[in-house]
Amino acid sequence: MKEGFMMYLPKAEHPRPDFYRDTWQNLNGAWEFQFDDEDVGLVQAWYQKASFSQTITVPFCYESAASGIHDTGYHPVCWYRRRVTPQLHWQGKHLFLNFCAVDYRCDVWVNGRHMGSHEGGYAPFGMDITECGCSDSFVVTVRCEDRRDCTQPRGKQYWKEPEGCFYTPVSGIWQTVWLEAKSQLHLESVQITPDIDERCIHLETSLAGCFTESLHLDCQVSLNGRQVAHAVFSLPKSQTRQTLCFPEESALDNLHYWTPESPVLYDIQLTLLQDALALDTVSSYFGMRKIEVRDNMILLNNNVLFQRLCLDQGYWEDTLLTAPDDEALRQDILLAKQAGFNGVRSHQKIEEARFYYWADKLGFLVWGELPSAYEFCTKEEENLYRDLTAMIRRDYNHPSIITWVPLNESWGVRNILTDRRQQDFASSLYYLCKALDPSRLVSTNDGWEMVASCDFYGVHDYAPYAKDLTENYASLTRLMASRAFSRLLYAQGQPSCTEKPVLITEYGGISFTDPNHPENWGYNGLVQNEEEFLARYADITRGFCALPYCWGYCYTQLTDVFQEANGLLRMDRTWKVDPKRLREINLSCGAK
Fold first, then answer.
1. Contact status, residue 558 vs residue 309, Cβ threshold 8 Å
2. How many CB atoms sit inside 10 A of residue 536's CB?
3. Among 46, 164, 225, 278, which one is least packed by beta carbons within 10 Å?
4. What is the CATH architecture of 24-182?
């Protein structure tokens, strides 16, 4: 590291509070940086280079102002480098180098030795670097490649100049980098599935490392510091399923369910034992909650759920897709709740794990949505399968997440209306979700041109007023055979079904006129003031909610995102309208 190189540690919190060990070290802050527009770094062995010419603040991407680079030009390849001195020496432990997200392809070297590669811009990955002899200090070098490839899941990261509802891309490291010390044999993952009807949780643990005999898993569950359940399981295999039941004296009842109104979380500590020796200890948490479709309604914990959601794209002006700090994630949720929303659809983005942590803590429903690719082919299919699997695997334990959305508005499957292969691909995404996670709902192609493989109908319609809702909304049968927002709601050749709930999952998009920014846009013209906005918001929201088969809505959108200035909040998170009046409107909707 260069002399006088100042270290600043942004986003210093543990990145995975749902899977916590105390033997960890944050590697955010100042890294050396270099563009490689000619793509000569591999040939010239930059992974052995003494230094790079620029400095970047990790985990902010080079396109962002917070990175210190703030270059929005096209640079398909870039490199990172820094010397790492572990703050702790973990005797007898293996050292793992972890990346929460790097967009899009990357290679990692430690002390000039290639440690591994990864592809996919939203998924975490890590590698055991113990053999590199890095007990004192070592040099990490990362090569990142992010090209204008439309087969990779991009979401709202535009491959041209930002316009319309597409924005500045994010390249390279954009989430936390960290070290973690583990035993050679350790817990790799744990999936916790609550069963409120049987008063138990189902645990599926996965181990990494050389398996040995006489292994046990000690599970301790507590609520507000008081132990409510404890069991020790034998682990005869490297992956095992166990059930931990709550005794009757724990008084598990509705007061202890996880809901938006009462987000009760149970703490769980998992200790991997060999005989009496503790090899590994991980802390996590879970919520006792169930989401399902029954009798044409959506139920949360066996009670009818009406969802009042807003669309959230998770962009910040100076940091882009990376939240500026942990408080920014928390505040976005609190702001939405202040306006009477009980959840959010995270649109075209897999959020960092700490966002879901705050949603769990604060009581906020979340739809997890897979970022879209935009060129249908075998490679796109493979990429979406990979990233959907990674999303579900990482975020399985968050009680706030109740729905998966693998496709949005036929993006990446533009011919799904008539193309049977694209329809089958959409159905395969649905069944992949269900195979990996049968405990949640799936909106397969949210918006329109839906396939039969979905748990409910998510309809997008930007009609400005209730009077503009056509006669097609007169009944669910008629709606499923007709159009909303000029698009057929059902793909051709798919068996239709009216025994499913309906949610209006995009609508509104109302924007204010702004003479200082004439390029800003919204849907169906601009409003002049707060009164005009609230009148239009109340009219169309209540119009949709009055439909007897509608069980929720998702308003577009929570915040402005650059030129798409149709948020309830500006991009700096200041209100355009009185949130108390929004709350009154939202809470007046949904009674059936």
1. no
2. 18
3. 225
4. Sandwich (2.60)
